[in-house]
Amino acid sequence: MAGFCRECEAILPEKGGDGRCPHCRSPRLLVHAELHELAIGHIDCDAFYAAVEKRDRPDLRDKPLIIGGGHRGVVSTACYIARLSGVRSAMPMFQARKLCPEAVVLPPDMEKYRQAGRQIRQLMGELTPLVEPISIDEAFLDLTGTESLHRMSPARSLNRLARRIESEIGVTVSVGLSHNKFLAKLASDLDKPRGFSIIGRTETLSFLAPRPVGQIWGIGRVSREALARDGIVTMAQVQEMPLDYLVERFGQMGTHIWHLSRGLDARRVEPDSAAKSISAETTFDRDIADLSSLAAELWPLCEKVAERLKAATLAGGVVHIKLKTAGFRLITRQSRLSAPTQLAETIYRAGHALLEKEAKGDWFRLIGIGIDALQDPRDADPIDLGDPDSQRRRKVEEAMDSVRAKLGHDAIIKGRSLKPNR
Amino acid sequence: MKLTIERTLLLKALGHVQSVVERRNTIPILSNVLAEAKDGQLGLTATDMDLAVVEKVAADITAPGAATVPAHTLYDIVRKLPEGAQVQIELAADGQQVTVKAGRSRFALATLPKEDFPAIHAGDLPHKFPLSAADLKGLIDRTKFAISTEETRYYLNGIYMHAYAAGKQTSLRAVATDGHRLARVEMPLPEGAEGIPGVIVPRKMVNEVRKLIEDFDGAIDVSLSDSRIRFAFADIVLTSKLIDGSFPDYQRVIPTANDKILEVDRKEFRDAVDRVSTISSEKSRAVKLSLKPGILTLSATSAENGSASEELEVKYDGQAMEIGFNSKYLLDVADEIEGDGLELKLADSVAPTLLRDMADAQALYVLMPMRV
């Protein structure tokens, strides 16, 4: 079987060996019959936020570290040491502290993580133009046809990328390699952290068979429950069912699970697939109920969204808001604008109108606002005969933008961003 | 309650009031019409809580009284009765049912207590003035098409009516806009309308009153407060809440410095726009106007359908320019112009354009161009 050493990249002999690299004696060997034939990779950073913090704070290296929000809130990332005590992402902070009282807790520094994420993406881009980021620390790569360019197989290219990320960015990643996106993503999760897993065509069916249907991409709680009502729990069961039956029983979802349970996933790796929506959200330090305080939280988010719209030369036609109640109930509302916009002010007005209807005394822990129906900004913010002030507001914002371009974001702000002293 | 009434009279009155009744009602009584018999007349009342209509019609009253019955059902029954039938309506002694009899047909309808029917409190309507049906039709017809359907801007979901003074000239103005187009119509201020507040008459009221005055040509008594408006004419009284909001300061969006003047024959222009727009995509309905001295070329292209163009001889001596419009908006305006000449005042291809009937200074339209 084909194989190489993950540390020194030495090619392993076809037969024999003692489980260690004959050259550097490392046990980190990658061996698989289809090793050099698979080309779809999924790269997922290991405990990313925590890893970036540990990189910058070597004193924290051997301590349990939790990245999570201020006064309360939830764990956004726990390092692997903290995970040993049972701390998990999305766990309420108080529970995490109870499980791991010695943990160091840091608030997230998103700007720093984004920057590291961008650097990683840049390294990925040197490998192939077909990079599809899923989040700040996760991406698919299609390395089909790169063998002659890099003079090495996709598997070796990915391994070298993992090593580069480790040495140049200072965080570790786990790699999944297979023949489609669904399987590549499952693979990267098999051997975390610093892992490299391969799912070949030969073992695809047997690999999937024992797994729960909930692991199929796109199958959430509701679908899982619907399937469970029919007694369908594992992919093995789906593999034995005829397509016709599943379609009749579950419609489109039937086709979907039939294919994915067989490891058939025709989705392409779509490079920087144009954003479908731009949004921003914030979790409050303390729950908020009154409209004016909620609106004060909303405005900077609108500015953020508008800034990103303008940077991407896009305009959006539908504004949506998101609220999470203290009891974790999620509320989303949207409204279509009379014309597409790029302006923070217009996004704010639409968002505020939606917010007004929801802020009726409930306590909220999170607010978010976003815009979709993204499009070319040529038709954005036209003269509106029903709104004589629209052009003036547009000019005000353009003037603010040009001041900010020269002097920085805080050089000029709107009065509504000033918060009264509390 | 017991009465007999000629089918045609009843049908006409029911036809008027039933259209106010919403098809789906969460409050059952609002599906009913209130029938009140007294003094030789049958009064029919329907309401959706925002809008109420009362119509009186002559009937032979045997026993005065009142009852409520499902409006649409009663209308359907009367509609299907033979012409010339005499309809007898009677509330059973136990008050549980209303029977409708005509010839050999007999219907028993469920009824709801008349006490539950919402009373129409219009409150005090301090402003009263007469308006001829022709004038009201003129105000409505030339502005209605521009009423917005955008729910978030509820204050644009109606026609804004207000008194306007320019020097010694006072006028009654009706304005509507959906943001893309604006229509403004004015007429001499009727006596008694001095000092009326600016009011936004909701679309449903506009539609109902327009329907009811179609065949009426007398004077309408308009009365209003700052929260309600009433139109009374013939045997009909329509009362509606007004939209509670403030209409934008529309004067500021009406261009005053457009200097490129295009004059077209209304019918020629209308028909050419209509023909060329056959090609426009369903979504944008865009037509392009290319102007050169003396010649206007209308054109449309669409990826699916192909292209079209038509040339018109026009009066124009400004610079050559191109501008695009939603053809539907052009047709809506052209259709409301009665004279032969239509004038367009343009600035450039992105600025609001002014349109008006060359024979009528009362109406003015503003259209936003679209990119083509």
Automatic annotation (TrEMBL), chain A:
Source organism of this protein record: Dongia mobilis
Residue positions of the active site: E138
Name of the protein in question: DNA polymerase IV
Annotated binding of Mg(2+), by residue: D44, D137
GO molecular function (one): magnesium ion binding
Cofactor: Mg(2+)
Ranges of compositional bias, category Basic and acidic residues: 389-400
Catalyzed reaction equations: DNA(n) + a 2'-deoxyribonucleoside 5'-triphosphate = DNA(n+1) + diphosphate
Similarity field: Belongs to the DNA polymerase type-Y family.
Domain of life of the native organism: Bacteria
Domain annotation UmuC: ranges: 40-220
From TrEMBL, chain B:
Keyword field contains rRNA processing: no
InterPro entries cross-referenced by the UniProt entry: DNA_clamp_sf (IPR046938), DNA_polIII_beta (IPR001001), DNA_polIII_beta_C (IPR022635), DNA_polIII_beta_cen (IPR022637), DNA_polIII_beta_N (IPR022634)
Domain DNA polymerase III beta sliding clamp central, chain residue ranges per copy: 132-249
SUPFAM superfamilies: DNA clamp
Chain ranges of the DNA polymerase III beta sliding clamp N-terminal domain: 1-120
Biological-process GO terms, alphabetical: DNA strand elongation involved in DNA replication
Annotated GO CC locations: cytoplasm; DNA polymerase III complex
Keyword Metal-binding in record: no
SMART domains, sorted: POL3Bc (SM00480)
Keywords of this entry: Cytoplasm, DNA replication, DNA-binding, DNA-directed DNA polymerase, Nucleotidyltransferase, Transferase
Location, primary (coarse class): cytoplasm
Signal peptide: none
GO molecular function, one term: DNA binding
Domain DNA polymerase III beta sliding clamp C-terminal residues, every copy: 252-371
Subcellular location per the Swiss-Prot or TrEMBL entry: Cytoplasm
PANTHER family: BETA SLIDING CLAMP (PTHR30478:SF0), DNA POLYMERASE III SUBUNIT BETA (PTHR30478)
Subunit structure comment from the entry: Forms a ring-shaped head-to-tail homodimer around DNA.
Family, similarity comment: Belongs to the beta sliding clamp family.
Function, as annotated: Confers DNA tethering and processivity to DNA polymerases and other proteins. Acts as a clamp, forming a ring around DNA (a reaction catalyzed by the clamp-loading complex) which diffuses in an ATP-independent manner freely and bidirectionally along dsDNA. Initially characterized for its ability to contact the catalytic subunit of DNA polymerase III (Pol III), a complex, multichain enzyme responsible for most of the replicative synthesis in bacteria; Pol III exhibits 3'-5' exonuclease proofreading activity.
Protein name, entry field: Beta sliding clamp
UniProt organism field: Dongia mobilis
